[in-house]
Amino acid sequence: xxxxxxxxxxxxxxxxxxxxxxxxxxxxxxxxxxxxxxxxxxxxxxxxxxxxxxxxxxxxxxxxxxxxxxxxxxxxxxxxxxxxxxxxxxxxxxxxxxxxxxxxxxxxxxxxxxxxxxxxxxxxxxxxxxxxxxxxxxxxxxxxxxxxxxxxxxxxxxxxxxxxxxxxxxxxxxxxxxxxxxxxxxxxxxxxxxxxxxxxxxxxxxxxxxxxxxxxxxxxxxxxxxxxxxxxxxxxxxxxxxxxxxxxxxxxxxxxxxxxxxxxxxxxxxxxxxxxxxxxxxxxxxxxxxxxxxxxxxxxxxxxxxxxxxxxxxxxxxxxxxxxxxxxxxxxxxxxxxxxxxxxxxxxxxxxxxxxxxxxxxxxxxxxxx
Length: 370
Fold this sequence. Notes:
Blueprint: E1 3-9, E2 12-19, H1 22-34, E3 41-46, H2 50-57, E4 67-72, H3 81-93, E5 101-106, H4 108-120, E6 127-131, H5 134-140, E7 145-150, E8 153-160, E9 165-169, H6 178-194, H7 199-205, H8 220-236, H9 253-262, H10 270-288, H11 293-305, H12 322-328, E10 339-343, E11 348-352, H13 355-369
Parallel strand pairs: 2-9, 3-4, 3-5, 5-6, 6-9
Antiparallel strand pairs: 1-2, 7-8, 10-11
Helix pairs in contact: 3-4, 5-6, 5-8, 6-7, 6-10, 9-10, 9-12, 10-11
């Protein structure tokens, strides 16, 4: 049987099922769909996960025939309002009521889009997610952050809407290209840095950096650790309102999201941008006297070992003015002041905008405009 973990995010219960085989995943979905609550379902995938999705719903042990499959265009550039409209329109055409089930099958883009559509369809419909990338399994699927890109800003529009069920099978990782594995490693490294217990970080340091791995199932324990840590944090601060709560999970994201927003889509993956942002957070932490030198060096070392480009050269590829616009409009702003997550001696802390901080930010902006 799959290992299961139950979380309570505010008034929303969320169950994560972790296993190795797709048949058990199908069994879990069939159990979900067997409830009277879920009379019909819309499964959403993209071009990269369509074959995997069809294998779930078109096999001999498939879920009920009430499941309709919608395939969207793949890619970050398609994480937009038009895609949300497509999901809502498909749900409407399939006759889903507010008790119909939305199922997202894919990486962070598909899971975010499906979750947002579910959150607004008839003011909220049930949601299940089947993450198929390491990044989504270890981070994006859990905790209820949904959204899409608009106004040139990543995830500018969104909602908090946890999935009632998340089902994770290592078999889904088998066909991931090297770059997607690498992208997911960034989120695992991020979570290990946030963890005040150094064991997780040290375990990742000892991993063979060859990707893709010969045995994807060896990553299930790391996925589990990442989810349990994130679950504990989100449980205490489900809508990112507490000081030093859920916002700490954004390590590397303020800088990383700004970089993503300023580059031509596809130049970097989300994970690569997060890794670049973690390096910037280390530098800012050093400037502020918050991050010890050996700690920053160890973090930069593991990013280098896994092959991430953390140089400032990436800023020279950004479109003029876009990096500064995205960074200065960061969602972690509070009372008009920027806030950044930086590594501390153990774990991370929040650093508020001050003169030293802005000096560093202005240096980055100057680099992006040179």
